[in-house]
Amino acid sequence: MAIGAGPEIERLMALLSKLPGLGPRSARRAALALLKRREQLLIPLTNAMQDAADKVESCRICGALSTQNPCATCADPARDKTMICVVEEDSALWAMERVGAFSGRYHVLGGLLSALDGVRPEDLRIDGLVERVRAGHITEVIMALPATVEGQTTAHYVADRLRPLGNGVQITYLARGVPVGGELDWLDDGTISHAFKQRR
Amino acid sequence: MAIGAGPEIERLMALLSKLPGLGPRSARRAALALLKRREQLLIPLTNAMQDAADKVESCRICGALSTQNPCATCADPARDKTMICVVEEDSALWAMERVGAFSGRYHVLGGLLSALDGVRPEDLRIDGLVERVRAGHITEVIMALPATVEGQTTAHYVADRLRPLGNGVQITYLARGVPVGGELDWLDDGTISHAFKQRR
């Protein structure tokens, strides 16, 4: 893409196009928006990214991205130490926190097991979770993993690793069913079948 | 949006969501992608943005964003000095350069006249264009402005400013018609009517 604007601008576009949700065309629009709004957007965003690059790391206890280590959630004495919610990624943790329904702590696996993508148990933060549960004081581990084949395979594997510890920890799963506002006509058969079997 | 990840990460998301094409959800995904790919994406993109903030400015002749001043196009002796292509934004200039059909120089207005948005002639780089044409050696000014009401109003206004200079400069407009691959059934009536009237 030779557009005569100089290698710096083309490099900026090329890197922006690697962000999820941005293709080559939207990356050009984003680059133009940044260059046109130098003071209001380009410089503040550059500083925010530099800040993030300097300060954000994975919490040594739960693996969540944070500017503190341990992260604010792990360090908060008001949060329930006996419950761990296991999530795939920080985005799931952020979603749970937005909802505000959970007052325990988290464990971010950092991905899901996948034979296809070559993700093995040792590539995820599973040993760390086993250690946390082995150390005691945990009464419930909630598997908040995606309702996909990889998500459920990972949940089963993790549960199999936790069960032999034999310290009475309960392993629970997010309920499956009709989402709020969901119309039956638009739902897939698997969801309807689940919701029917687990009716109450 | 309190997600417990610290103010730096929330600030990063808030700024990313100001980019065109990114809403709050895709900004979260983009932030996570950046933080997970620190070495491959976050740091290179931060450096590219810092580079752009430091080096990119508007060309003093044509107004194009460039790391050189005058820009590479204005400074290139191989490009036709007698033709100026007038565009709204750098994105249009980049599109023209990708096509490679034009070997003259450009003039970036920096926007379009709009009574609604309060954009007046003095807010655009129109005086600079008049000066370039007044200085002579220009035989053709091509209005490559959008085929919208604002685009055409701006083109008429600019043409009215250039015509009194009376140095025989020709003012031309991009052809209107059926786009390549366009099926009549999918085109708006205005385009079909234009294409019919200007049939050849």
Automatic annotation (TrEMBL), chains A, B:
DNA repair keyword on record: yes
SUPFAM superfamilies listed in its UniProt record: Recombination protein RecR
Zinc-finger ranges (C4-type): 59-74
Residue span(s) of domain Toprim: 82-179
Source superkingdom: Bacteria
CDD domains linked to this entry: TOPRIM_recR
GO MF annotation list: DNA binding; zinc ion binding
InterPro entries for this protein: DNA_Rcmb_RecR, Rcmb_RecR, Rcmb_RecR_Znf, TOPRIM_dom, TOPRIM_RecR
Coiled-coil stretches noted in the UniProt entry, renumbered to this chain: none
Bilayer-crossing regions: none
Position of the signal peptide: none
rRNA-binding listed as a keyword: no
Stored PROSITE patterns: TOPRIM
Alphabetical keyword list: DNA damage, DNA recombination, DNA repair, Metal-binding, Zinc, Zinc-finger
Described function: May play a role in DNA repair. It seems to be involved in an RecBC-independent recombinational process of DNA repair. It may act with RecF and RecO.
Family: Belongs to the RecR family.
Protein name, as recorded: Recombination protein RecR
Lineage, broadest ranks: Bacteria, Pseudomonadati, Pseudomonadota, Alphaproteobacteria, Caulobacterales
